[in-house]
# Entry
Amino acid sequence: MRFFNTYSRQIEEFEPRDPAERKIGIYTCGPTVYSRAHIGNFRAYIFEDLLQRHFELRGFKMHRVMNITDVDDKTIRGAREANIPLSEFTAPFKQAFFEDCETLRIKRADDFPAATDQRYIERMIEMIGTLISRDLAYQADDKSVYFRINKFPDYGKLAHFDLTQLQSTGRVKHDEYDKEHIGDFALWKAWDEEDGGVAWESPWGRGRPGWHIECSAMSTALLGDQIDIHCGGVDNIFPHHEAEIAQSEGVTGKKFVRYWLHCAHLLVDGQKMSKSLGNFYTLPNLLEKGYTGREIRYALMRVHYRAPLNFTWEGMEEARQALARVDEWLARLRETANGKIDKKNMKPGQQFEEALDDDLNISAALGFLFESIRETNRAIDQNEMDAATANAWLDWWKRVNSVLVVEEAPAELPAEITKLAEARLQARLAKDFQKSDELRNELGTRGWEVRDTKDGQKITRRAGG
Ligand code: AMP
Ligand code: ZN
# Structure
């Protein structure tokens, strides 16, 4: 497998920290729970989900950590404006995040550490203490503690950033007069009135952690000094991930991350979908329009993670049609389980996985999927596929779907509806069409529609039913 490493700006062959164990530690920056995440955020999480699932398909064991940022300027402001404690303010957004992940079939991380957990606050304080003792951090006149970027020669290497440019912009904001260098970032923010009741004691006085140190503390606490893969959206590269490197390596003296993978943005009319621009949709916004979780998942996943993806309603329709084709194909393959002739010997190969091995090339992988659908459909049309081949494709689909996770979930029919449907089927088989029509009407009044298709009887919920 190979991936584009933001650090080197090159495609690199993937080698885990521990090749013998095939165990991979992966850290992904999670949501800041001050509002409901929008589907732009979910583009990043779905990319990470795809990455994890592909590694698992390839036989690796993943230890995935996703943090929850539940203390920062935005969460504090939200709690203050709502006039409730911070944890009460963030709780419903955490809940909504987990619900949305479930709808989008995103695998749960092994750990979801929260920044306000006392255990991690202690670790942050400990790390800051170490950085000060090594001269990599200092307490300024405003009582906050800052990282001294001039003492960390690698600072700027991830973002490929020239520090002299940072200097030339000069000091812009009043509160930055306390810092030695404009690029120095806060590790510990001294308490001020705006923080209200949000504060922890530390050797530098009451205050709260900076956002960057939260991720350094939680990632190294759970995954150790070195992480195989660290992900996020491209907006995380600078300053957030750059700062994570400086802090973590400043403390451990070891290379923090082996592979940095960043996904490009979800755009709306060429601009980043974001809270601040107000051009965003949440998952419930799309569900209200009738799109399902798997359709939204597919729409956000189908473009290579390093290419910007424009959100459009046509794109949503394309996703819907693509999945309808998959559904139809699976139904046909299942029917072909009694085919006898095999003229083509069309057995599935490795192209799908191999495309994903190549820097998670989902477009090529999906291209191969739909080409296979076209060819196998043609063979079925011409009666040239036998049961063994159909089953081989169905087995192949299981592998493919373990990564894509877009197969339609079997509809959950209420028990009494199943009973009525079964009775109708029996009536039809007995050619009692009067009874079968009565049962159809009965189902109809309960909001279910019956259709007789070549695959047999199909029951669907009536629109608006
Ligand atoms: P935030 O809650 O703002 O910290 O963002 C959470 C994650 O979503 C980060 O990995 C961001 O890089 C990512 N993200 C934010 N906006 C977008 C977008 N429009 N497209 C893709 N990823 C995004
Ligand atoms: Zn982070």
Notes: Residues 29, 215, 240 surround zinc ion (ligand 2) (CB under 6 Å). The mean pLDDT is 93.
